[in-house]
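Hey L., structure's done. Input below.
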Amino acid sequence: MSRRVVRLGQPVPHSLSEALQQAAFEAAGIDATYEPIDTPTVDLPEAIEALRGEEYLGANIGVPHKDRVVPLLDKLTEEAQATGAVDTITPEGNQLIGHNTDVIAFKPTLEELVGNQKMPKNAVVVGAGGGGRAAIYSLIQAGFQNIALFNRHLHRGEKLVKHFARSASHMDLKARPWHESVIEA
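Output:
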């Protein structure tokens, strides 16, 4: 029986991901298909519940569902819990586990760029979505002292700053409005 891996989001743009995932399955000898499914927010709970079926191997979660999917899952990995965002779901028995692989991908790149520098570390993050959450979490873990978060909608940036308030209490983490004059300054 061929199993399914789906990408849930809205919109779900067609990209090379489908071909790359399918080629990876074939190279690894995994009998599975990779399918993008345009999933409106109202249909998200039903789509997540369907992942409990035996035909599913897992799912990737895209915009705008990375934080919306969190309360629909049974367990979260440490990174998913800390960021409040999930980009991958895997079944474990009858439970659905949420992962944040953006953190796993971002950390080695950050370590390569920054290394063991002892100087004050400052960063700018653009976007308060799942990727922004992963970046901020990794920057906090790496000991950055100042992070400016720019987002088109200031209230989303402020919500994200509030999410990290406890773990970022030792640093200056601020949301900034996405406005040309502010960015230039």
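The beta strands are 3-9, 32-38, 56-61, 75-76, 88-92, 95-99, 122-126, 146-151, 172-177. The first helix runs from residue 17 to 28.

-- N.
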